[in-house]
Amino acid sequence: MSGTIGIVLLKELREALRDRRTLLTSLVLGPLLGPVFFVLVLKLALEQSVETLDEAVPVTVANAGAAPNLVQHLRQSGLAVTLRDGSDIEIRDWITAAPELVVVRVSEAYAARFQSAEPAVVMIYADGSRARAERRARRVQEVIDGWSALIGALRLQARGVVPTVTHAVIVDSIDVSTPSARAALLLGMLSYLILVITLVGGLYLAIDATAGERERGSLEALLTVPVPRERLIYGKVLAAAVMMGLALALVTVTIMAALRWMPLESLGMSANFGPAVAASVFLVTLPFALVGAGLLTVVASFTRSYKEAQSWLGIVMLVPTLPIAIAGVLAVKASAPLMLVPSLSQHLVIQGLMRGESMPAAWLALSAGSTLALGLALTWLAGRLYQREAILGG
Amino acid sequence: MIRVAGLTRSFGAVRAITDVSFTAADGRITGLLGPNGAGKSTTLRVLYTVLRPDAGSAVVDDIDVVASPLLARRAIGVLPHAAGIYPQLTASENIAWFGALHGLTGAALRRRVDELISVLDISEFATRRAKGFSQGQRVKVALARALIHSPRNLLLDEPSNGLDVMATRSLRELIRGLRAAGHCVLFSSHVMQEVAALCDDIVIIDHGRVVAAGTPIELQRRFGSATLEDAFVAAIGDARGLA
Fold it and tell me: Which range among A160-169, A202-211, A279-288, B134-143 shows the weakest confidence by mean pLDDT?
């Protein structure tokens, strides 16, 4: 009668695959849309950082004829300069029409004051409520400040003063939270995404096969067939694990496809996620499906209704992700003992694979072995729980 | 053949059944009659092995259900109180799945499923998914599922619950057919008329105890009543549960 587990497995899968709602939540929304959404966010973060680094900031200069040297300096500093003459009011209208426009207006008295070494005025117009305009205006200001400092230094030198006397202190600020670092952090969340989507893949089946079966009233009849109860439940756990495996396969393929759209190279970053890595990620994470299926089934077997199971499992879903969160806070490095912690070991191995590091075979064996052991223990526990009379919930 | 002796079971402080004893013979329909909460379902649940008794014995065809539950399950067909079926499977798949769990395979399984589909008049909706089935259709499928392994003994817990008049009539026909084929049918009901219309033997249960048992005629004679209904009221002491 060991074929019973297979009979149960096939029936549960058949039911799950026929239910459009299950398919949508388990295999479409999570595995397909999850990575797409993730990549969109990542792309946004990357594009911002690429832009900050490389963008030729466009700037429009009004009354440029009064300050040809300044305009030349702007051009030399890599700004895309457009010349267009207009009054204060006209410039405001331009910006209303094109909110991201940054305009430098050279004052009428500029040439005369510059000649007589008096402070000459330029005005920068930008819509400060727009992040991009604000950033561009800052860049323009930096360039003009640099120009001002340069001219000032030359003037001092011409008067026989060493320019550096005017610099009592030099501040060199180093921004460590660059957008590209943020993108790297997001990329680090990929393994977290993979594990959660894998779990969601079997969530519906795990609930339906336990709490759902009880609520529909089909459980009692099922328990009167001449099959040991644990076999029935092993079949159900296995079915949930298969669904999770399907979700995992889908999500790795989607991630592989989605990452091709990312401008990672332009940042000097690389996500090593070709077919070989994708296959390794799948194999490394697959044992985790059994842990997820076992855990969800154990918890669902305590709940009395579908709704109760759903709310409980929502919380339980967070449990496997806890080690990852804790490891993230502590910034741990992969090591042999950590390979004994299911979910964390998958996280660390996936991270390593994506960085192109080679993982010791012993670590992979430890990860797979410990994860499978926990999965089997949970499955056994689920079988034990189904021996209780209280399982009928009556 | 079902023999129950001294069956007792408590849930925490609540005594569900106390010292329940009766016999249900082959080729006869035995009714467990009693008001709601009298202990009918608990008795049946012990018989179909999902509950263990605190004391007493239950034997089906010489198989002790407590000592050998797996063996006993082969000898019984069960229609539990909540006879839910799987909404995503068709009627025939629902039936076939239970057949597979009973170890039937291939042509033998198909033949038996087809047989039940025709006997229970399921063919009209056999290939439809069970999602939108009426209560009557659902009971038919659940009954076919209970009969898939051709058990000698049938345990039906309130089978006519929620059925309309026509469905109830066809269910009675079915049960009579099973009796004619020599099966031992034990069913519970809180509906007096149901039991009167169908049963050869009646076991009246109240407050978890058997208060009277016998054929309808015997019961009327014992309580000096003109009708079975009067006998029932006399047996349980009031008119609770009369439908």
Answer: A160-169
Q: Cβ(A321)–Cβ(A195) under 8 Å?
A: yes
In angstroms, the separation between the Cα of residue A177 and the nearest Cα of chain B is 52
Q: By the CB < 8 Å criterion, does B125 face chain A?
A: no
Residue B73 near chain A (CB below 8 Å): yes
Please state the φ and ψ torsions of residue A283, each to the nearest 5 degrees: -65, -40
Question: What beta strand segments (E) does A114-181 contain?
Answer: 122-125
Report pLDDT digits (tens) over A135-162.
Answer: 888 889 988 998 898 898 888 888 888 8
Interval A223-259: pLDDT, tens = 999 999 999 999 999 999 999 999 999 999 998 888 8
* Ordered domains of chain A (ranges, CATH): 3-49+189-392 (no CATH), 57-177 (3.40.1710)
User: Å from A215 to nearest chain B CA?
Assistant: 9
> Looking at domain B2-85+153-236, does it have CATH number 1.10.3720.10?
no
Contacts of residue A86, defined as CB under 8 A and 6 or more positions apart, other chains included, come to A62, A94, A105
Residues of B in contact with A11 (CB under 8 A): 86, 89, 97
Q: CA-nearest residue of chain B to A387?
A: B50
ipTM: 0.90
Residue with tokens 């005629």: B217
